[in-house]
Amino acid sequence: MKEMKEYNWAVLGCGVIANELAESIKKHGRKLYAVGNRTYEKALKYAEKYDVEKVYDDYMDMFMDDEVDIIYITTPHNTHIQFLREALSRGKHVLCEKSITLNSDELEEAIMLANDKNVILAEAMTLYHMPLYKKLDEIVKGGRMGDINLITINFGSYKKYDMNNRFFNRNLAGGAMLDIGIYALSFARWFLKSKPEKIVSQVMYAPTKVDEQATILLMNDEQQMVTIALSLHSKQPKRGMISCDKGYIEVMEYPRAMEAVVTYNETGVKEIIQLGNTQDALWYEFEDMEKAITGKKNHMHLDYTKDVMEVMTYIRKEWGMSYPEEE
Ligand SMILES: NC(=O)c1ccc[n+]([C@@H]2O[C@H](COP(=O)([O-])OP(=O)(O)OC[C@H]3O[C@@H](n4cnc5c(N)ncnc54)[C@H](OP(=O)(O)O)[C@@H]3O)[C@@H](O)[C@H]2O)c1
User: Fold this and answer.
1) 152 alpha carbon to ligand 1 midpoint, in Å?
2) Tens of pLDDT along 263-308?
3) How does pLDDT run across 171-202, given as a tens digit for each residue?
4) Per-residue pLDDT, 267
5) Structural domains in the chain plus CATH codes
6) Which residue lies with its CA nearest to atom 20 of ligand 1?
7) CB of 94 closer than 8 Å to CB of 73
8) Which pLDDT belongs to residue 93?
């Protein structure tokens, strides 16, 4: 079998998620090639900690570096499009943290740039890469559960109204939809036959004017339905349930799930499916990105990313909620 090439990765930003990625790939014997960050000192520390070969004095140099194959963007949502433009227009493959862009217009622009340069563009949506979801897909497609009729999803974190972090900060594209709603919608899209066309929702705003809490109802042309409850100021379990003709599947901690319980109606039998490891979520993503580049296959599910972004864009428009960059 052909050996897979070890690509040169550069990470932009070195906050929480960039550290998680570096830890995760280190465990699997891989290193990043380069790091660039707005605060240079943090990049230096990051490079030291994870044995990264190159640190840019000016992080914008990353886009010009011929040695870089893949750029992993880990800055706040509202900054993504400007870095996507820089990276894609120079022919770099890009793995970009969620939410990949603020809205569908920005995403369309990025997709056009990627197509133009024939490079892979992907959103770092962990659940698309967890082995468990590939197995659940097989179970559903195998027909034992019958059709999927209804999907119910919760996601609630309790975050303080602290403007020093991005969660409630409108200038950093905070709010429940882009931060956690995207997981619920991606979970739904993984199992739905097609993109939801009918969409209704309710929203409650935080004092900072970003969406704090929302409920969303969706239906696609196949009449599969979805209900979602989100909150950034009220704890809920991260729980997804897929109800089918012949039973239901429950997934706890669904963004990085490694276990699901399948219950069959007729017998009441519960089957526990365990696959993959939550700790390796970012490693699966990293591996799939390299596979996608090598084989140009649909390992990254940009089609789902696009559908999810369209739903989020539609809902925020309905609410009349925009970010400074959109005004
Ligand atoms: N996939 C997941 O499970 C997961 C989990 C958490 C977060 N995320 C996503 O990852 C992204 C970052 O989240 P995080 O929690 O890692 O954030 P974080 O810890 O606050 O780190 C943000 C990084 O972005 C840099 N940055 C901030 N504003 C910038 C700007 N205007 N221009 C250039 N660089 C800028 C910061 O640089 P300084 O050092 O100079 O401040 C820092 O390195 C978000 O899109 C988030 O949704 C994903």
Assistant:
1) 29
2) 999 999 999 999 999 999 999 999 999 999 998 676 899 999 999 9
3) 999 999 999 999 999 999 999 999 999 999 99
4) 95
5) 9-124 (3.40.50.720), 128-283+307-326 (3.30.360.10)
6) 15
7) yes
8) 98
| Rounded distance from Cα 274 to ligand 1 centre (Å) | 31
Map tokens 């369209």 to a residue: 310
Q: Whose CA is nearest to atom 44 of ligand 1?
A: 76
Rounded distance from Cα 103 to ligand 1 centre (Å): 18
Q: Which residues, 6+ apart, have CB-to-CB distance to 150 below 8 Å? A: 224, 225, 226, 227, 242, 243
Query: Would you state the structure tokens that stand for residue 137, as one six-digit string?
Result: 């897909």
Structure tokens at 263: 């219950």
Return d(Cα 82, Cα 86) in angstroms, integer: 6
Alpha-carbon span 211 to 50, nearest angstrom: 36
- For ligand 1, say whether the CB of 74 is within 6 Å of any of its atoms: yes
Check if 76 has its Cβ closer than 6 Å to any atom of ligand 1. yes
Protein residue with least CA distance to atom 21, ligand 1? 15
pTM above 0.70, yes or no: yes
pLDDT of 164 reads 81
Confidence at residue 165, expressed as pLDDT on a 0 to 100 scale: 83
CA of 250 to the centre of ligand 1 (A): 31
Output the pLDDT for position 146: 96
User: How many Å lie between the centroid of ligand 1 and the Cα of residue 212?
Assistant: 20
Phi, psi of 118, deg, nearest 5: 55, 50
